[in-house]
Design brief:
By secondary structure, the protein is mainly beta. Helix content is 10%, strand content 32%. InterPro entries: MORN, Morn5. It holds the Pfam family MORN.
C-alpha cells in the first residue's frame, strides 16, 4: 500500500498530492480538480478533518458569511477584483469573455449540457456524466444557453 509523500490521479482526472498512509490520504494533502479548483486539507484515514476549497479563479470558499454572488451582491469575483464594466456592457460569467457554448447546449458550470442527449461533457468535450431528471430541469431553468436563433437589427420604419 502507498506510504509517505506522493500523488494519485483518480479516474475523473482529479489528482491528490500529499501524505499517504496505509493506502489512504493521511496528513496534509490537496485535491487538484480538472476545472482548476483545489481542496487543501488535513486528512485522517482518507477523510478530511479540516480544509479549504479555492476556486480556479482564486476565490476561497467560506463556509460561514459567504457573500459571493448572493441575493445582496450579484457581482462576479472578477468584477469584485477588477471593478464593474461601463454601463451597457454586460459581463455574463466570471470569465470575460465567456466561453462559447455549442449550439443547442447549456453551460452548466463544470461543462456543457446537451438536453437532447442529456449528456454533460467538460470544457474539453470529455464525457462527465448523464443528467438525471432533477439536474436536467435545474440546468434548463437556470443555466446560460447558446443562442439557437439569430437576431438582426431591424431599422425603425
Amino acid at each position: 500500500r502507498m506510504e509517505g509523500q506522493g500523488s494519485y490521479t483518480l479516474p475523473t482526472g482529479t489528482e491528490y498530492r500529499g501524505a499517504l498512509k496505509d493506502g489512504m490520504f493521511h496528513g496534509e494533502g490537496e485535491l487538484l480538480f480538472p476545472n482548476g479548483g483545489r481542496y487543501r486539507a488535513i486528512w485522517h484515514r482518507g477523510v478530511p478533518t479540516q480544509g479549504k476549497y479555492t476556486f480556479a479563479d482564486g476565490l476561497e470558499y467560506k463556509d460561514k458569511k459567504w457573500h459571493y454572488c448572493d441575493g445582496y451582491d450579484r457581482r462576479f469575483y472578477t468584477e469584485i477584483c477588477s471593478g464593474l464594466k461601463p454601463a451597457g456592457i454586460s459581463q455574463l460569467t466570471n470569465l470575460d469573455p465567456p466561453r462559447k457554448i455549442p449550439e443547442g447546449c447549456y453551460d452548466c458550470g463544470d461543462g456543457f449540457y446537451n438536453p437532447e442527449t442529456r449528456v454533460i461533457v467538460d470544457y474539453k468535450f470529455r464525457f462527465l456524466r448523464n443528467a438525471d431528471d432533477d439536474e436536467h430541469e435545474w440546468i434548463i431553468r437556470t443555466c446560460r444557453k447558446a443562442w439557437d436563433e439569430t437576431t438582426d437589427h431591424k431599422a425603425k420604419p
